Model the fold of this input.
Amino acid sequence: MMQIKNILKRNSFLKISSIVIAILLWIFVYFGIGIKTIDTSIFQIQFRGLNPNYDVTLDFEQVEVSFEAPANHLESLSKSISVNLDVADLKPGTYKIKPLINTPSEVSVVSFRPEFIEVTLDTIITKDFNVKALVIGNLYTGNIAGEPTITPTTVQITGPQTKIDSITQVVVEVDITDANADIFSRAKISALDEGKNHVSGVSIEPETVQVTIPVLNTDITKVLPIIPRITGVPTGRIVEIVTEPSILTVSGKVSIIKELLNLATEEISIDGVNTNIERQIKIILPTGVSSVQNITTVLVKIRIEPNSSRLFEGLNLSILNLPFHLDYVFMQSKVNVRVYGPQSILDQLQTIEIYVDVKDLGPGIYTIPIQYKDLPENTIAQSFPDEIEIQLIAIESEVQ
Done:
């Protein structure tokens, strides 16, 4: 019995010892040697032996690398990995090159992609180009653009030879829309290919130039109506005003002519005039404006119809706005009216309608001015008397 117990005690010691040894072994492996794990990262491509006079173009600029490394040092080891392309001794052209994955001794590469990188090498050159002004838009009507002046006239463009060779013109755009004075502009330069597309990936020195475009003002012509300046009040009615000629063609600078809508004349006074008049008067031309036909005066004909008068006797008054509960009595039932105006209008008059307005008035006696209904234009009227006395009377309702 004692022998069995001793054996069990010895086995327990062995078991505990085994567990302790296993833990110590795990710690040694993890922290000493390190458990390896697989990770994937993306790395920027670097170059070996790149000629500084070459421009390089890649179809892929990064490589995805899967690698195995100790887990406890994964981050620091990952920073030590690099991807290189060996382009030493290569001439300008296009190549398929396998990336070189450089790793520390503790790291092993599992895979990477892409497996090959297309590399294009091109010689970097510098070339002088003349700059041309590309004018956009149109000047204000009547102006002419002179020859553009560009300072400096040439620029240096640096870049890959294939791009430099594709440049067909170097331009600077200048917008002259509606300009009527000399244009001074500092504008950015653009390099264009045969299809008028901008060539990118090149540097231009300087990037901007000064462009000066002289704008020449030329005389233009314009046909304008002649408007006589009439002053005063005639005693008759103005029937018609005629100018001979009625229009005039003038010329002058754009800035002046564009503002003109008509031409005025010297004043003609018709104050108190009752008959037709004709006057040869001077046309007023603004400074810098001249008559194309050398006409400086205009004949103005003003037809004035003499005023007359007509008496309408014994006209009956009507009443307006009389409330339904009021009646009225005029102290004078008949009124005379004299109408003044052109004879042609007076001859067409059959009668004159006259009335008084009793709006908002209650019972009582009032003196109210006489008013006229639809009096013809260019006429005035005077009634005798010009006021009328009226009595408003309340209507008594009948008692049933």
Notes: The mean pLDDT is 86.
